[in-house]
Amino acid sequence: MAAPAMEGIAVTALRSVMSRVRQSAAKVGRDPGGVRVVAVSKTKPISLIRQLYDAGHRSFGENYVQEFLEKAPQLPEDIEWHFIGHLQTNKVKSLLTSVPHLDMVEGVDSQKLANHLDRAVSAIGRKPLKVLVQVNTSGETSKAGVDPPACVELVKHVKLGCPNLEFRGLMTIGMPDYTSTPENFKTLSNCRGAVCKELGIAEEQCELSMGMSGDFELAIEMGSTNVRIGSTIFGPREYPKKQ
Questions:
Q1: Taking a C-beta distance cutoff of 8 angstroms, is the pair 133, 167 a contact?
Q2: How far apart are CA 240 and CA 243, in angstroms?
Q3: Which of 65, 80, 157, 237 is the most exposed, fewest CB within 10 Å of its CB?
Q4: Rounded to two decimals, what is the model's pTM?
Q5: Nearest-angstrom CA–CA distance, 8 and 164
Q6: How many CA atoms lie within 13 A of 138 on its CB side?
Q7: Cα–Cα dist 113/78, whole Å
Q8: CB within 8 A of 108, min separation 6: which ones?
Q9: DSSP string, 201-234
Q10: What single DSSP character describes residue 48?
Q11: Contact present, 2 and 231 (Cβ < 8 Å)
C-alpha cells in the first residue's frame, strides 16, 4: 500500500473535520475560530503528521510519553503539542526536557502531578506550562480525573500554588468506548461554572476540552473549545501486536 495515498487521505479527512466543526459552531451561533482541533497522532507515523503540518495544521496531541519523546524532536518546533491523558509523575521531567515546545498538558488530575509539573518547569527554566484539569465526568474508577465536587480545590491549587503552571480550563475523556453523553458534557460545563464563580474567572477564560472522533459535534454544540480528533483524521489505530 503506498504511503502517499494514506497521507492524502489524512489531509482530506482533516479538511472534512474542520468543515464539520464550522457547521457545528454555526448551528449554535458560535465562532468556529473559538474551537481548537487537536489532531491526535498516537501510533501514527511522523510522515502523516508532517503531511498535516504541510497542509497548515499546527495543533497535535500524543498520549504515550515514550512515543512522544521519539516523534517530537523530528518535527518542526512551531507545532503546538498537547499531552493528552494521565501523565505519570516519574515521566514529567523527561517529557518537559525532551519536548521543550510542549504547549499544554491535558490534564492534571492530582495535586501531586501539578506539583511535579510546577517544579520541573521551574528547574528547566521554560515559560509557564498551560494545563487543563481533568475531571472524571462518568464516575468510572478506570478513568483518571478528579471527581466533579473536587475540581474547584484542584484548580485553586494549580492557580494559587503552582506559579509555573498556567491554568487554562477543564477536560474530560468520557465513556470507556471513548464516546460521551450530553450528561458528561453538562457535568464538565457545570464544573466550569463552579470554578469560575469561586475564583472570579470569566467563563470565556476557562476552556472546555471535550469531544473526540465520535462526538465532537455534540461537544461543540455544548460549548467545547478544544476537540481531540484521532481516528477520524488518521484512520484506525495500529497498535503493535504482542509477542
A1: yes
A2: 9
A3: 237
A4: 0.93
A5: 40
A6: 17
A7: 26
A8: 114, 117, 131, 132, 133, 134, 154, 158, 165
A9: --GGGSEEE---TTTHHHHHHTT-SEEEE-HHHH
A10: H
A11: no
